[in-house]
Amino acid sequence: MADKDIFKDIISHCKEYGFVFQSSEIYDGLSAVYDYGQNGVELKNNIREYWWRSMVQLHENIVGLDAAIFMHPTVWKASGHIDAFSDPLIDNRDSKKRYRADVLIEDYISKLESKIEKEVEKAKKKFGDSFNEELYRSTNPRCVETKNKIEEINSGMKNALVENNMEAMKQIIIDCEIADPVSGTRNWTDVRQFNLMFSTQIGSVAEESDTIYLRPETAQGIFVNFLNVQKTGRLKIPFGIAQTGKAFRNEIVARQFIFRMREFEQMEMQFFIKPGTEDEWYNTWKQKRSAWHKRLGFPETKYRFHDHLKLAHYAKAACDIEFEFPFGFKELEGIHSRGDFDLSQHEKFSGKKLQYFDGENNESYVPYVIETSIGLDRMFLAIISASYTQEKVASSNEGEDATRIVLKLPAQLSPIKVAVLPLVAKDGLPEKGKEIFNRLKFDCRCFYEEKDTIGRRYRRQDAIGTPFAITVDHQTLTDNTVTIRYRDTMQQERISVDAVEAIVKEKLDWKNLLK
Ligand code: ATP
């Protein structure tokens, strides 16, 4: 099945099984805003917990923070967001659709990249074992020509963005003959910059009110509290401050479900270091964050690093961890070496010193910062996409239909950990089932259900990623055993009721994911 169809299936699956709903759906929805349903909220909380435990619990030198969404408006002047937090926007006059000019160009580059990959695949098949891929990539005229073209477009775009030259941006779109994917035409408007911050008024009387902004990132809450946390926590450099919370951006293009939202949640960590040590720490955090993703057990080929062409106004170096979503490789997390830009700017605009006093060397300095920043919703989409599996199963198996849909989530992240299912709703089985449920509920989120055939109940649990199903049958009443069914293999084992707790606890232990 085409990846496009898979993406559609994932979106409908998210709705059908209570993961994600369109916001205000009964009023036809609000564009790029979503609500998390009964299963979505559990999965989201578990992903956040995985991040928090890895960052805060496992590092003795990282602490948490929960700053307010509203901040003094000067914060955004100092951070550069009022002047420079914008995206280049372009409209197609025929479809009336709006696009980010840089994204149109990046998508075009992706197409060129896949052209090269196709050439290489073809040659691989043709030449068999004697094929020298490296040599082929560097000498085959079609590969070389396409590669040069990509480099030329990339450098043109980099210059246009750095120089804020929107005419040059448009020229690239014209030169590459990029057409609107909807109308198929090249009838483009000029490119213009568009600020992404939402503003509102604070204060009850209109004349006295001030414009304030909904924060477009959580990071600034960390910077302005840098000294509060450092002093009260008696923290020594290097140390980090971690925070999760809502951020808001008036995104131009918002058509990829929860990939790009106007209200979303970030998980950010700012690591404060001594100037001069930034390269070492930048690499350390690249490696640590990559390991965090890989511990989830999805194929390693789904991740890649991408170095930034256009460095943001604050950055010294920056890269993205990209993930292969159903619509291609896209940014999942950013890792940025921000220098002392933010703290120095806040010193300048607030007139307050934001320096660290190093008692051992008797010196004060403005620390440098390495930031790791990941969108919780985007991580949610990555995890759902990687876990969503359609499997052919023998139709006799469990008496259910031949295709089963299963979310192969890491057990710690599953919304429901254990489903307790009496085989029939009579003969004392429900009572025994409830007894088991009431024992297990103190350890993890459980679910109890007695209606419908057992096969259908298993399928519904597979579809939300429940790793264990405990089935209570008549034998349970005589020998106190149940069957435990494992989601991924569908294998069933007969075990004693008393063993259930230990098995479940062992498999769900966070240590398995964190170590
Ligand atoms: P993009 O290039 O995709 O717009 P960005 O480079 O502006 O992203 P950052 O400012 O680095 O993103 O934000 C850090 C992280 O926050 C991103 O890696 C992403 O996971 C998440 N994020 C950013 N914007 C959104 C959004 N509109 N919806 C959901 N998540 C987002």
In short:
This protein has 515 residues and is an alpha+beta fold. It is 40% helix and 24% strand.
Give a written overview of the molecule.
The chain has 515 residues and is an alpha+beta fold. The protein contains 18 helices and 23 strands. The chain has three domains: 1-81 and 196-390, BirA Bifunctional Protein, domain 2 (2-Layer Sandwich); 86-194, Herpes Virus-1 (2-Layer Sandwich); 394-514, Anticodon-binding domain (Rossmann fold). The strands form seven sheets. The chain has a seven-stranded mixed sheet with strand order 3-9-10-16-13-12-11. A five-stranded mixed sheet has the order 20-19-21-22-23, sandwiched between helices. Strands 5-4-6 form a three-stranded antiparallel sheet. Strand 19 (418-422), helix 14 (429-440) and strand 20 form a beta-alpha-beta unit. Helix 5 (101-127) packs antiparallel against helix 7 (141-162), helix 5 runs parallel beside helix 8 and helix 7 (141-162) runs antiparallel to helix 8 (166-175). The longest helix has 27 residues, at 101-127. It binds adenosine-5'-triphosphate.
